[in-house]
Write a structure and sequence with these properties.
Length: 193
């Protein structure tokens, strides 16, 4: 599971899933076979959850290098990657699952090609609309994390015991703990002596 939820792997899985659905016979077959259609509706959100859930909820499931700034960059990159299938569907010259849609054209639709362009545009728009709140959530987590870190650092530097449930490997600055002439001068300058 760790391999599948690794941010770069899950991003590639989401893109591969979407491209497989729309640019292989899978989609046309799923339109004809009910069970496969249901599986496709389950497969698309499941692939997306492999990326979203670890990034939003389980920091311990992510590698140590996946800090808040890295997570924000990955979410932005994922938003760009998620937009690609919509862009490709919108600009694709031939119909995707054309035989199905030519035989099942809705009465209000004047042109199936135009419908595909609208559908691709909708995919593109939805991908970007989902990315914005996702990115805002990551930024909000980052701000909260920095506030907690600041409180821990302030308490540590003030000599107070740490807040229960937090840990800090932070230490007082060298000029406050070292007994040397240079440290004493820095302490005097800080007090304005």
């Amino acid at each position: 599971m760790r391999a599948l939820t690794f941010p770069l792997v899950s991003t590639v899985l989401v893109l591969a899933t979407e491209l497989t659905v729309y640019f292989t016979p899978y989609f046309a077959t799923a339109l004809r076979v009910g069970r496969l259609h249901e599986l496709m509706y389950l497969q698309l959100p499941a692939a997306g959850c492999l990326f979203v859930l670890p990034v939003l909820t389980r920091e311990q499931a992510l590698p140590a290098w996946c800090t808040h700034p890295v997570r924000a960059a990955l979410v932005f990159l994922d938003g760009v990657v998620d937009a690609l299938p919509g862009l490709v569907v919108m600009t694709h010259g031939t119909l995707i699952a054309g035989a199905w849609y030519l035989h099942h054209t809705p009465p209000w639709s004047p042109d199936v090609h135009h419908d595909q362009q609208i559908g691709g545009g909708a995919m593109l728009g939805i991908a970007e609309l989902v990315t914005v709140p996702f990115l805002l959530a990551i930024l909000a987590q980052w701000v909260r994390s920095e506030r907690v870190r600041t409180v821990v650092l302030d308490r540590r530097l003030a000599g107070e015991p740490p807040v229960p449930g937090t840990s800090s490997g932070l230490v007082r600055p060298w000029w406050e703990t070292e007994e040397s002439e240079v440290a004493a001068r820095v302490r005097r300058q800080g007090r304005g002596d």
